[in-house]
Amino acid sequence: MVKTVRLPRKTNKQKNVKAPQSKLMVYVIALTVISVLLFTGAFAIFELRPTKETVRSERKVIPREVHVAPPKTNVRIPILMYHYVEYVKDKRDTIRQTLDVVPFTFEQQIKTLTEAGYTFLTASELADILDGKMAVPPKPILLTFDDGHWDLFTDVLPILEKYHVKATAYIISGFIGGADFMNKDQLEAVIRSGLIEIGAHTVHHISLAHKIQPVVQFEVAHSKEDLESQYHVHVVSFAYPNGSFDQQAIDAVTLAGFRTAVSTVPGIEQSDSNRFFLFRLRPGGRTGDTLLHYLEQTVFKPW
User: Fold this and answer.
1) 85-115, pLDDT tens digit by residue?
2) Which domain holds residue 108?
3) Which of 38, 87, 88, 191 is 20 to 30 Å apart from 252, CA to CA?
4) Could you please report the per-residue DSSP string of 88-133?
5) What is the C-alpha to C-alpha distance for residues 255 and 238, in angstroms, rounded to an integer?
6) Do residues 146 and 154 make contact, with C-beta atoms less than 8 angstroms apart?
7) Do 167 and 129 touch, CB atoms closer than 8 A?
8) What is the pTM assigned to this prediction?
9) How many CA atoms lie within 13 A of 159 on its CB side?
10) Closest Cα to residue 126, out of 75, 161, 165, 172?
């Protein structure tokens, strides 16, 4: 006869003996994992913080052999601004007449400046001066032409060639070949002359102030890229359409790789601090002593 042996039942106290120990182990493991994560995270953050040596090395962006002009050093370099140089046929076009200097007057202005001993510079040469790479020549001056109208080829270029003086033309890359603008062949002839440096003036002549960032970046960057790729020129200067710019536009010009930008703000003194909104003057119909006095005033007074 088989005897049935009954094992004693576990009481509630006996069942819960190992429970506290199991929970304790879970807590210990959890705390260990959290401690490791916190430690490694803190260590990673500590490693990402730049040391003084790192900051110093990042600031060395200017080669030692290149002397950069102090930002507050001003140089008196008048930049003359032109749009049209032609005999306007449509007398109802008042805007065109306001912005126009007739070819005879323009030639007299060039003759006046040449005989007075002025040195004609390009935008890239002005950038070299601001960078300390080029000495300031006697009586420096820049001639600038906005938009790229056909009269740059038909009227301006022959006068520049006659007196052998240099200039800078700011071209609207998307308007080349338009009804009121130079075509591709004319622009190429201007470039081949070696007297006119090419700058950018946006793709579609859009005022840049208060525009959304993608539009500003496109108009600025692509105007440079289009001109450089199609005409194999190095474009280093930019002109703001209608003189309209803000800090976002300046940032876009800087990011695109331009060295300078010109504004319509009247003035003569240029410096590194305003290299992306250089001052310009409208010569109007001034010639002879009137023009010279206008440029040589100790304190500039706007038109």
Assistant:
1) 999 998 899 999 999 999 999 999 999 999 9
2) 76-296
3) 191
4) ---TT-HHHHHTB--HHHHHHHHHHHHHTT-EEE-HHHHHHHHTTS
5) 12
6) no
7) no
8) 0.76
9) 21
10) 75
